[in-house]
User: Fold this.
Amino acid sequence: MKFDPSIVQTRVQSPLGDMLLAATNKGLAGAWFTDQRHRPEALDFKNVPHAWPTQDSHPTLLEAARQLAEFFKGKRKAFDLPLDINGGTLFQQSVWRALLKIPYGKTTSYGSISRQIENPAAVRAVGAAVGRNPLSLIVPCHRVLGGDGSLTGYAGGLHRKTALLELEGVALQAGPDLLTNSRASSLAPSF
Assistant:
């Protein structure tokens, strides 16, 4: 991934563990749990000389922290933030935009997303793009399940994916009855 040179970061606490938020002049560019996979090394101040600078007072980071707190308290079902997903490839960006259309409390499958982006043979590539989503929770990759409704990978850990789905009221049981058509929602913010 490539990130805009204007990027800054801050650290926030959540019920599921500390998170690192990153923003550019265009919007929120990252939201990672501190121990999740595929986290950019530029978040690590102690070991990386080119770490992103901390800017706790950045307006987008402050607003993201506020909205995340509301989400975890059950007071927010959708995020209203400017997003900067330009660090991903065009394919990744198309997958991340599709993720934004999955409504709160609903789930979909990797295959459904591949069909939605008009690339039905790209199920594995969709899975890889979902795994590299830089905006955990905000771009709701936790709402993607296996084709049979099974709980599948999550860069932040399956324990977090389970907790997030339970927070949203998703009944976790095996089977296709968990799957919904993600095209139904037009609540996603535009870029």
Remarks:
- Strands lie at 8-12, 19-23, 28-33, 108-109, 144-145.
- The first strand starts at residue 8 and ends at 12.
